[in-house]
Design a protein that fits this description.
With 132 residues, this protein is mainly alpha-helical. The chain has 2 helices and no strands.
């Protein structure tokens, strides 16, 4: 390949460059010997391009379907999580209520036991006093 340094303002230098480039191109062998070769390559490239476009569209559709499925699954899991949290809160409240009731019953049992032991303690004293 030839590289030329030239001054654009000169018509002679533009003509000289044109002739030099033409001579270089004329000396080179042409890649295509038949116009049909160029058309065949162009057709093949066009088919490849269309195939790539179709593959790209199919891939994009698949990605969109996967995104939609993921969004649906995420929404479903969020709903289930919220439901389970509500159940957990209800169970915690029920446990707290039962623990409170158990504490009340335990206190009542202690009070009953204490009153029974106090009565039993008092009965022997009264018996002792009455026997005296």
């Amino acid at each position: 390949m030839l590289v030329f340094l030239f001054h654009f303002s000169s018509v002679c230098s533009i003509n000289y460059i044109f002739v030099a480039v033409f001579n270089v191109l004329q000396d080179q062998d042409l890649y295509f010997t038949d116009p049909k070769q160029l058309l065949d390559i162009y057709t093949e490239l066009e088919e490849q391009n269309l195939s790539l476009i179709l593959n790209s569209q199919e891939t994009e559709e698949a990605v969109e379907e996967i995104k939609q499925a993921m969004a649906t699954a995420q929404h479903k899991m969020n709903c289930e999580t919220d439901f389970l949290k509500q159940q957990l809160n209800m169970l915690n409240e029920a446990v707290a209520k039962e623990e409170s009731r158990a504490a009340e019953l335990e206190l009542k049992a202690k009070m009953f036991s204490f009153s029974q032991s106090t009565i039993e303690d008092q009965v022997p004293c009264e018996l002792v006093l009455s026997h005296s």
